[in-house]
UniProtKB/TrEMBL annotation:
Record protein name field: Myomesin-1
An example Gene Ontology CC term for this record: myosin filament
Originating organism: Amphiprion percula (Orange clownfish)
Pfam families: fn3 (PF00041), I-set (PF07679)
Stored SUPFAM superfamilies: Fibronectin type III, Immunoglobulin
Length: 1324
């Protein structure tokens, strides 16, 4: 390439790293070798030229930072001659120095090239300072003169190249090679580079370590060849440092960011360069602020840089943080640290709001680093990352140190002039105010041009405008640098400034004063950005663009913030300002709706926020769909054809809204022009193309459309002849769809043929074969497609049949694997607490555009009168409004924009009946009871009505009803409700005749209710009342002296009769008096009282001793009386009988009358019974009873009761045998598992005398015999249970309960009904 440089300039440019990179890109192998061999002659010539330059020119050459010149073309575009329909690319490289970055434009025959005006023709690209113009498929019109124009504020440069396009005389060969794109190896090897295993958009936090890496595959692989691997951040080449470590292992490139700071945020690019070109990959890295050390403190400033460094003066700049902690930032503190120490010194006493600050008072020759901290009313931020070290020295000296050393020539050349001594320096030149804020003013000037500059320093003077009173600012120490910052000036006042030089010879004359300068911020905060427009990008990102701030000066960039709609919480999208007006905000939540706002930033501060954007939902952007495929003919008549096609494999992220069909006539194999068959899109994948010509051949193409637009057309179909079909059999079915794919089954749907033949279609045949099997492997499938082999891949086809025969086969489906995808769900039927029946389906792999589509019998449900669909998140529910027989059918649900997520549920008549029963139970729930309402007597004769609920919540309540009237807590009624145990009770002190009637407890717990009643009328009430009164009297009797055993008698062996009774609760004051026939018996030796027993001995009893004896106990607590009738009157009783009770069995007898004189004794096997909690005795009216709770075989045997009324005794006996008790002898299993539809028959043996009563229960509820469940009890011995045809509703726990007067027993078993297809866990 011709560079236009002199030999010495070319050599110097070649020494730079930028040139080395450009050389690798654009020079051939021979040029590389030539450029790497710089001769000694050229180096010496350059040294001689540099020595001949004067000092000012030499410094100017060595310090290119101070150069301001027009742009220069380092590599110019070159001319090309190419064949027609080939591609050509023009390259150029422009040398530029910040801040004068040139603007480059491309021209054709002096007319600017606009790629948008000719889409696909031109492609302009600028990357890494390399500019290119690519012209696609050149033609004669592209023959022209092209030139590139680079322009900045200092001027414009152009570079020209010509392109000549030639044509072959013969046919054009479209396979001609494209032009070379980049350098190729001189050895003839073309490398192919692929970057795989790429890093994605990454998020980190300040202080963390992050690694980015990619695997690089280069083919062919040469062991000794290594590509050039480079990393860029925001198109700026990165070099290894303490912040960035780079590693290349031969096949993997890794970049490690050792200590993240917000400066590290940006677009990272990996560039791999080989001899054949380069490949790049880019992804964005976001760095969030570290947690603040003080809650509410702002984020740390960033990008701290040092500008205009001089001997004792440096300007420090930085960028404001995006996060202010919720309170406005009051300002910033700048800290400095001398290199080699760890001691930080704060440079400003008060915070500065301007993001630029002049630091003075530095020691010449020493190096410093700087950092910045932000402060608000909550506290101080963390410090920023430290700046690069910078030395406090004269810029000329720095340039000299940076310059390229000349080769050693054996001579030492002194270029400095000897200073003249004893000369007072002249006036400083070009004094000006370079920066003015309300906190400080910066002056700059040039040293005087005269000799005598050794040790020159400066004094600065100021003067308030309108006066002539000059004051020296730096009175003590003059400054060494031609820069000075003045602080503590009065804001709003105007000042003029001048400078004097001084040295050892004295102080020179002052410079010309500056114009009057008013103290205040000259740089305004930028205006708020304009309209913000968000655009969908991916399912976690949004593209945000906005209008730039108007008239913004020294703009640093923009900060973008996002907020979920309704949250009012704003989060920063970037923590490093972006210079463009478009940014991709990553890390958003899929499916959420966001709004965005933007603000601009410059050194003066941050602007107001832009207006909020319109809300946008985060989901993948849509594109036009791919082309359909598989065009076939379903019917053909004389002037029309019905076409069908398959849906595109890629629908563009949005539902397809329709299709457009084109056709063209084919004459002698030459296709004609395309014509539109339909203007309006058709929604079905079948369409009749009309107005065709009979016996003509046609081709067709189809395009799909969605909301993003119309996609590209499909490939042209085969050529079809338009002639009327006359065949008798039907045409092919079409639109085959596969649903509900499981590991052993699937559902295949299709549409009937458009052409039915001579007779209507009366059936279909479904064929299946393995995808890799030959054509001979096709076989028919009956009914459902089941019993597939898991993991095998299958294809399907369908044939229609009418009376004439079987028609042509449909198109074969795409191969499908019999695999249940992870996360696949089935439809679940549910009945809620309100009795609402619903079908529920959940999908785990939905996309933002997915929708649930419910169907009945595989036809989409459009009538909402029977079913209501509710969808929330990834769950959908189909709710039946009034379920009935018309709702019986197959219900299916398909989720769009997924990998075929679908399921079905068969609602049969039996299942509907079962669900309706459950629904009724849920609508009208019953509170289960452990025990019904019962009554019992408590101490003191109190009457307790009680029941126990099995389960009741703390919100449950009870109403107490007596004879249809509510009763409440009071003196007569005491109510208690223990919600932990479910025990509900009502206690009455006593019963009166007015208390006869019906008692009811009504329970309510939410919607659940129940009630239990107890009827106390007639003899039942009177008996309970008498017993209560008796217990009451007994209680009061026992409060004073009373009889434990009433008066009785015994006969001693000496034939003496002793009357005795046992007493209790006696005290000294208690008197015991004996009476006979109402006359007191005087105390004598015949009366006795020992150990609580009163005795009266009758030594020789005779008829004169007959009579009624009475003992009276009394004291101040009360009295008690016991009477014994020693007369001829006798008592009688009924035979001893047995009955069954809830607790066990009860033996009882009735006496003709009962009084306190009747002595009762119970015997078991001729021994008196020792009473306990399990065996008790008692009296109710004239009934004497013995209660045995939970009887066992040990309780069998002979029982007897003896009672004596003083005149004589009676004995009643009963043989209690276990064979008389009701029992379930056997025959019932524990668990019965049975297939749906089968008959169930169970029989068990029953024993007991008398014959027991038999009751059957299901889930603890009594059932009765009907047509479905037949219950029999035959011959008093055999109980049978029969279900004619079981279904799933028959599953449950069953019990048989047998009971007679001697006891009760039960037998339990469980019935489990399964459906054959469900037994294997599969559903068709």
């Amino acid at each position: 390439f011709a560079t236009g440089f002199s030999d010495s300039e070319e050599a110097r440019v070649r020494g730079t790293s930028a040139y080395m990179a450009r050389r690798d890109l654009f020079t051939s192998g021979l040029e590389m070798e030539r450029s790497e061999q710089i001769s000694r002659r050229e180096a010496m010539r350059e040294s001689a030229e540099r020595i001949s330059l004067n000092k000012r020119e030499h410094f100017k050459r060595m310090n290119e930072d101070s150069l301001m010149h027009p742009p220069e073309f380092v590599i110019k575009p070159r001319s090309h001659t190419v064949w027609e329909k080939q591609c050509v690319r023009l390259h150029c490289t422009v040398n530029h120095l910040k801040p004068l970055i040139p603007v480059l434009s491309m021209y054709k025959n002096n007319v600017a090239i606009d790629p948008l005006a000719n889409p696909g023709k031109y492609k302009l690209e600028s990357r890494y300072n390399v500019h290119s113009l690519e012209i696609n498929r050149c033609d004669f019109d592209d023959t022209a003169q092209y030139h590139a124009s680079a322009m900045n504020s200092k001027g414009e440069q152009s570079a020209f190249a010509s392109i000549v396009v030639k044509r072959f005389k013969g046919d054009v060969d479209e396979s001609l090679p494209s032009p070379r794109q980049g350098p190729v190896s001189e050895y003839g090897i073309t490398f192919q580079t692929h970057i795989v295993d790429q890093f994605g958009v990454s998020f980190g936090r300040e202080g963390e370590t992050m690694s980015l890496g990619c695997t690089v595959i280069i083919y062919p692989a040469l062991n000794r060849y290594q590509p050039e691997v480079e990393w860029y951040r925001d198109d700026v080449l990165l070099s290894p440092s303490k912040w960035t470590h780079m590693h290349w292992s031969g096949d993997r490139a890794t970049l490690t960011l050792t200590h993240l700071n917000k400066e590290d945020e940006g677009l990272y690019t990996l560039r791999v360069t080989t001899k054949s070109g380069y490949e790049t990959y880019s992804a964005y890295v976001f760095v969030r602020d570290a947690d603040a050390e003080v809650e509410g403190a702002p984020g740390a400033p960033l990008d701290v840089r040092c500008l205009d460094a001089n001997k004792d003066y440096i300007i420090v700049t930085w960028k404001q943080p995006a996060v202010d902690g919720g309170n406005s930032i009051l300002g910033y503190f700048v800290d400095r640290c001398e290199v080699g120490t760890t001691h930080w010194i704060q440079c400003n006493d008060t915070p500065v709001k301007f993001a630029r600050f002049p630091v003075t008072g530095l020691v010449e020759g020493r190096s410093y680093t700087f950092r910045v901290r932000a402060v608000n009313k909550s506290g101080m931020s963390r410090p920023s990352r430290v700046s690069e070290p910078v030395a406090a020295m004269d810029p000329a000296d720095r340039a000299r140190m940076r310059g390229t050393s000349a080769p050693w020539t054996g001579q030492i050349i002194v270029t400095e002039e000897e200073p003249a001594e004893g000369v007072v320096p002249g006036r400083p030149l070009e004094l000006q105010v370079t920066e003015a804020t309300k906190n400080y003013v910066v002056l700059s000037w040039k040293p005087p041009g005269e000799k005598g500059l050794e040790g020159v320093m400066y004094y600065v003077e100021k003067c308030v405008s309108g006066t002539d009173n000059w004051q020296r600012v730096n009175t003590e120490i003059p400054v060494k640098s031609p820069r000075f910052a003045l602080f503590d000036l009065a804001e709003g006042k105007s000042y003029s400034f001048r400078v004097r030089c001084c040295n050892s010879a004295g102080v020179g004359e002052p410079s010309d004063p500056t114009e009057a300068t008013t103290v205040g911020d000259k740089l305004d905060i930028p205006s708020a950005p304009g309209k913000v427009i968000p655009t969908r990008n991916t399912d976690t990102s949004v593209v945000v663009s906005w209008e730039a701030s108007r008239d913004a000066k020294e703009l640093v960039g923009y900060y973008i913030e996002s907020s979920v709609v309704g949250s009012n919480v704003w989060e920063p999208c970037n923590n490093k300002p972006v210079n463009a007006t478009r940014f991709i905000c990553h890390g958003l939540m899929t499916g959420e709706t966001y709004v965005f706002r933007v603000r601009a930033v410059n050194a003066a501060g941050l602007s107001q926020f832009s207006p909020e954007s319109e809300p946008v939902e985060v989901k993948a952007a849509i594109a036009s769909p791919a082309p359909p495929y598989g065009i076939t003919v379903l019917e053909c008549v004389r002037d029309s054809m019905v076409l069908a096609w398959k849906q595109p494999n890629f629908i563009g992220g949005a539902d397809i809204t329709g299709y457009f069909v084109d056709y063209r006539e084919v004459i002698d194999g030459v296709p004609g022009k395309w014509h539109e068959a339909n203007i309006r899109a058709v929604s079905e994948r079948a369409y009749r193309v009309s107005d065709l010509k009979e016996n003509k051949k046609y081709q067709f193409q189809v395009r799909a459309a969605n909301m993003a637009g119309v996609g590209i057309p499909s490939l042209p179909s085969n050529t079809f002849l338009c002639e009327e079909w006359t065949i008798a059999v039907p045409g092919p079915p079409h639109d085959l769809q596969i649903r509900e794919v499981r590991s052993d089954s699937l559902v295949l749907l299709w549409k009937p043929p458009v052409y039915q033949g001579r007779d209507p279609v009366n059936g279909f045949y479904v064929d299946i074969k393995e995808a890799e099997a030959p054509e001979e492997a096709w076989r028919g499938v009956n009914n459902k497609i089941k019993n597939l082999k898991e993991g095998e891949t299958y294809v399907f086809r369908v044939r229609a049949q009418n009376k004439a025969g079987v028609g042509n086969t449909s198109d074969v489906t795409e191969p499908v694997s019999a695999v249940t995808k992870p996360g696949s769900k089935e439809i679940v039927v549910d009945v809620d607490d309100d009795g609402i029946i619903s079908l529920n389906f959940e999908c785990c792999d939905m996309t933002p555009d997915s929708k649930f589509v419910w169907s009945k019998n595989y036809e989409e449900i459009s009538d909402a009168s029977r079913l209501t669909v509710e969808t929330k998140g990834n769950k959908s529910k189909a709710v039946f409004k009034t379920p009935g027989e018309e709702d019986v059918g197959i219900y299916s649900c398909l989720v769009t924009h997924t990998d075929g997520a679908s399921a079905s549920y068969t609602l049969s008549e039996e299942e509907l009946k079962r669900l309706l029963e459950i629904s009724h139970d849920h609508k009208f729930p019953i509170i289960p009871l452990k025990s019904e309402l019962a009554v019992e007597l408590l101490e003191k004769g109190k009457v307790r009505f009680w029941l126990q609920a099995e389960k009741i919540s703390p919100n449950g309540k009870v109403d107490y009803i007596f004879n249809d009237n509510a009763v409440s807590q009071g003196e007569k009624y005491k109510m208690n409700f223990d919600k932990n145990t479910g025990v509900i009770e009502m206690i009455m002190e006593s019963l009166t005749p007015a208390d006869e009637g019906t008692y009811t407890f009504q329970l309510q717990d939410g919607k659940a209710t129940n009630q239990s009643s107890l009827v106390l009328i007639g003899d039942v009430f009177k008996q309970l009342q008498q017993e209560s009164e008796f217990q009451r009297k007994e209680w009061f009797r026992k409060q004073g002296p009373h009889f434990i055993e009433y008066l009785g008698y015994e006969v001693t062996p000496e034939c003496c009769v002793i009357l005795k009774c046992k007493v209790g609760n006696m005290k000294k004051e208690t008197s015991a008096l004996w009476y006979k026939d109402g006359h007191e018996i005087k105390s004598d030796e015949h009366l006795g009282f020992t150990e609580g027993v009163l005795k009266l001995e009758i030594a020789q009893i005779s008829k004169k001793d007959a009579g009624v004896y009475e003992v009276v106990l009394k004291d101040d607590r009360g009295k008690d009386t016991s009477t014994l009738n020693l007369t001829d009157q006798a008592n009688s009783s009924t035979p001893l009988k047995v009955t069954s009770t809830d607790e066990g069995i009860r033996l009882y007898t009735f006496v003709s009358y009962y009084n306190d004189l009747l002595q009762v004794t119970w015997h078991y096997k001729d021994s008196a019974i020792a009473f306990s909690d399990r065996i008790k005795s008692g009296v109710v009216g004239e009934q004497l009873w013995l209660q045995i709770s939970e009887p066992t075989e040990k309780d069998m045997g002979k029982y007897a009761i003896e009672f004596n009324d003083g005149k004589g005794g009676l004995r009643r006996t009963l043989e209690l045998s276990g064979q008389d008790r009701a029992r379930v002898a056997g025959g019932l299993p524990d668990v019965v598992t049975i297939q749906e539809g089968k008959a169930l028959n169970l029989t068990c043996n029953i024993s007991g005398n008398p014959v027991p009563e038999v009751t059957w229960l299901k889930n603890d509820r009594e059932i009765t015999s009907d047509e479905h469940c037949i219950l029999k009890f035959e011959s008093g011995k055999f109980a049978s249970f029969t279900i004619t045809g079981v279904n799933t509703s028959d599953s449950g726990k069953y019990s048989i309960l047998v009971k007679n007067k001697y006891g009760t027993e039960s037998g339990d078993f469980t019935v489990s009904v399964f459906i054959p297809d469900e037994a294997g866990g599969k559903k068709k």
